[in-house]
Amino acid sequence: MEIDMKAWRAAIDSELRGNILDFWMKHAPDEHTGGFHGYVSRELEVQADADRSLVLNTRILWTFSAAYRIYGDQQYLDMARRAYDYVRRYFADREYGGLYWSVTSDGKTSSDKKQVYGQAFAIYAFSEYGRATGDEEALNEAIELYRVLERHAYDPVNRGYVEALARDWTETDDNSLSSKDLNTKKSMNTHLHVLEAYTNLYRVWPSEELRGKLKELVEVTIRHIVDPVTAHFLLFFDMEWNSQSNHISYGHDIEGSWLLHEAAEALGDSELLAEAKSVAVRMAEATYLEGVDADGGLFNEAGPEGLTDDAKDWWPQAEAVVGFYNAYQLTDEARYRDAALASWHFIETYLVDRKFGEWFWSVTRDGNPSDNPQKISAWKCPYHNGRACFELLERLEAAEEATQTI
After folding, report:
1. What is the pLDDT of residue 15?
2. Which of 31, 208, 254, 305 has the most CB atoms in a 10 Å sphere around its CB?
């Protein structure tokens, strides 16, 4: 199939700047109490008293920092700075270090536990803000958070990181990331995003200590988290890495495939990179064969008995575009490129909200918007779809330039 790369890049740029980023600049800021609304419905109804999550605020910070780094547009810097100032003012624990999990709409702490997933997104966001602006304080905060995690959350016996700790970094029984997650000591999801955060921090702070930790995370992911038989991620674990679930998350599989390769590529270790490349392609292939519907959309979840959730949430579609295109770059197999484009067409056809802006949370298998009303929430953020656009713009531009130089 012939693909007009220039037209595809133009469509992505238009979606990113004209819809995604524009929506968040118009509808997320709270002009009364500062920061960003904790909840906005898809009909743009604001829930003024909704709690504000660390995930939402750090993902806004990362997204608009990256947008400013790429485009140099002042309005993106203003959004990033607003998020940076808000996170530092209301989420930072001045007594014990690290960041709270959530705050109320007026800035009081509502959940003070130290979810490692949330600390990882702060590292990811602070390092991107420092990368985009040259702000040394933000970089130092990212480094300090990294050291806090290593001091309190790292498992020196079995390697890897625990899910959560109490406010004072002592052990807690409240490990679950969300109501959907098992209450286990370790998870794929937390490790995936610590990996992502450390990779981004390594770009701006390539220290030997961080290099060693990032390399270990790549190895832990390959040895313990990717099932060597199925090439799917295992999702939940005890401290000794015994799997506690047989569920499959196609969105995490395809996302993890490219993030794992990205981390190994940042390290530049040829032997580890070759191994990560092999695993990444196997993961993409498993997702391609099992998780993609005839319309190009990616199913949510499966189990040993087959599909357990045939809806198509917004974020797996975004990750499919990047993950399949990454597989194409690694293999030069056109079917992966075509799968990436099919994912993009699915997004344009079914997920983009042409009336109110941004993307629907999810659509059913027959393509109708689900009954989930969230447009801005603790988990509905501009990071997955924004990042997919950033990644594809860069990759398609590089492909176009390479073609012109041949």
Report:
1. 98
2. 254
Give the number of residues written for the chain. 406
Q: What is the pTM of this model?
A: 0.97
Are β-strands 40-41 and 374-376 bridged in parallel, bridged antiparallel, or unpaired?
antiparallel
**Strand spans (E) along 203-288:** 236-237, 248-249
Set out the domains of the chain in order of their start, with CATH numbers. 5-405 (1.50.10.10)
At 405 the pLDDT is 59
CB 253 within 8 A of CB 188: no
DSSP string across 194-211: HHHHHHHHHHH---HHHH
The continuous run of DSSP H or E covering 114 comes out as strand 114-115
Cβ-based neighbour number of residue 333 at 10 Å: 15
Mean pLDDT for the stretch of residues 7-35: 97
How far is it, in rounded angstroms, from Cα 145 to Cα 30?
27
How is residue 123 annotated by DSSP? H
| Residue-wise pLDDT tens digits, 91-108 | 999 999 999 999 999 999
Residue 221, amino acid = T
How confident is the model at residue 403, as a pLDDT? Answer: 73
- Cα(355)–Cα(30) distance, integer angstroms: 22
Query: Which DSSP letter does residue 240 get?
Result: T
* Model confidence at 144: pLDDT above 60: yes
Rounded to whole angstroms, how far apart are CA atoms 183 and 174? Answer: 7
Q: CB under 8 Å to 396, separation ≥6 — which residues?
A: 5, 8, 9, 12
Would you call 245 exposed, middle or buried from its count of C-beta atoms within 10 A (0-12, 13-18, 19+)? Answer: middle
> Is residue 132 within 8 Å of 66, Cβ to Cβ?
yes
Q: Per-residue pLDDT for 296 more than 70?
A: yes
